[in-house]
Amino acid sequence: MNCMMWFGILIVFFTATACTQTAEISVRGINFNENQIVQGQQIYAQFCASCHGANGEGQFPDAPLVPDSTGRFGAPPHTGAGHTWHHGDELLIRYVQEGGMGSPSSFYPMPAFGDSLTEDDILLVIAYLKTLWNDEQRAYQQQATEAEHSN
C-alpha cells in the first residue's frame, strides 16, 4: 500500500471518529459518557418514544406545537424545535418522576414514571435528550439548571 492510500485511510478514520464524538453531557453536575448516553437512548426508546417520537420529534411531528382537533397539545418534541431545553435539570427530573404537564383539557397528560424508572434511569434519559440539542441550547439549559439552584 502506498503512502497516499494510508493517508486517505487515516483521514477517513479521524473524520469518522471526530463526527461521532458527543459533546460533554452532564445532568445534576454528573458527566455522562457515550455508553451511558446509549443506555439513556434505549430507556427513552422503551418508555418515552411512543409519545415523544423515536427521534424526539414530538407526538404530532408535522405540527408539534399546535393543538390537535381536540384542542389539546400533544407530547412535545425534545429536539431543539421543542422547549425541553428551556427547563433546568430538576424540573425535567420532576416531570419524568411525577408526570403531569398541565391541565388535561389542554395537554395530553404525561404519566408518572417514578415507580417504573430509577432516578439513575431518569438521569440517563435526560443525558440522552441533551444530545438532541445544539451547543447554544445546552448552554441555555445549563443556565436554567444553575438558576434552579440559586433560588
Largest sheet: 2 strands, antiparallel
Shape: globular
Sheet with the most strands: spatial strand order: 1-2
> What structural class do helix, strand and pairing data support?
mainly alpha
Give the rounded overall mean pLDDT.
87
Query: What are the low-pLDDT stretches, counting only 5+ consecutive residues below 50?
Result: 2-21
Order of helices and strands: HEEHHHHH
The number of helical segments is 6
Structure characterization notes:
25% of the residues are buried. The chain is mainly α and 151 residues long. Helix content is 49%, strand content 4%. A two-stranded antiparallel sheet has the order 1-2. It has a domain at 60-151. β1 (25-27) and β2 form a beta hairpin.
